[in-house]
Amino acid sequence: MVKKKNIRVHVIHGPNLNMLGKREPAIYGIKALEEIDADLKNRANSLGISLETFQSNHEGEIIEKIHDIFNTKSNGLIINPAAFTHTSIAIRDALTLLDIPIIEVHLSNIYKREEFRHKSMLADIVTGQITGLGSLGYTLALNAIAEDINGK
Ligand code: DQA
To answer: Active-site residues: which are they?
Structure first.
């Protein structure tokens, strides 16, 4: 259980992740995004964390969400930018605004896949990266943020 009160953690899911469960299930699994978010919210509750999830297929909306997170209180961010991972300097630049733990999560192991997925624009500015563990990656990311908050 996290000691401090009013702990808020944000989750951002990038493009096409709203299609989880239907989209290439052999790669991304059979769980829908709603299930992943619900499981994560349960886990957050048990840790005393209030979790806010957001999904968008639009780069600008993701950037604006990061600005909102900057402008309001947040204790940590879990982000799966999906395909924008490999292309978006703009999302990278927005994330450099944040002075909180940021965990980059990928359901699939991006280093085992096509070469264009091996490069993450965020890898060197995030706190850590979890790749290839499916939806468990989000839970592990939440645990890592909770540990970080507990340690302070
Ligand atoms: C992904 C990996 C990306 O390369 C891909 O574009 C995605 C999902 C993952 O979670 O494995 O959409 O971020």
So the answer is: 28, 106
Q: What is the pLDDT of residues 84-107, one digit of tens each?
A: 999 999 999 999 999 999 999 999
Tokens standing for residue 25: 């299930």
Q: State whether residue 53 is helix, strand or coil.
A: strand
Written as six digits, the tokens of 80 are: 């799966």
How far is residue 34's CA from residue 42's CA, in Å, rounded to a whole number? 12
- Beta-strand runs (E) in 70-143: 76-80, 102-106, 128-131
Cα torsion angle, 35, 11, 79, 18, sign: positive
Compute the average pLDDT of residues 109-125. 97
Q: Which residue, by CA, sits nearest to atom 1 of ligand 1?
A: 82
Pocket test for ligand 1, best of 13, 28, 109, 119 (most atoms within 8 A of CB): 28
